[in-house]
Amino acid sequence: MRDNPVKPIREDGPLKMDGFDEAIIGLTDGASNGGLLVYDQEKIIKILMERDGMTEDDAYEYYDFNIAGAWHGSGTPIIVGLDTPENCLAAFDEDQG
Q: Is the pLDDT of residue 41 over 60?
């Protein structure tokens, strides 16, 4: 298995996921922390499959266990699953109900 991919960009700033630059889709507007890197979940999965030769199931398992939900302090990158507004709101309503 690969080592933890989350590494600091600079000592007091946001963290970067090593080897996943192609999955970066933006930077948050954060005055206090200089912004956080934002990654696309599907692009992370695709990188794991293509670069590491994982099956889709293995890539999701690795992602779930090693990347998603990991907390590395205030500079932890944000990972988003892109979807339609309707699906996002429906998922939000389910979580609230």
A: yes
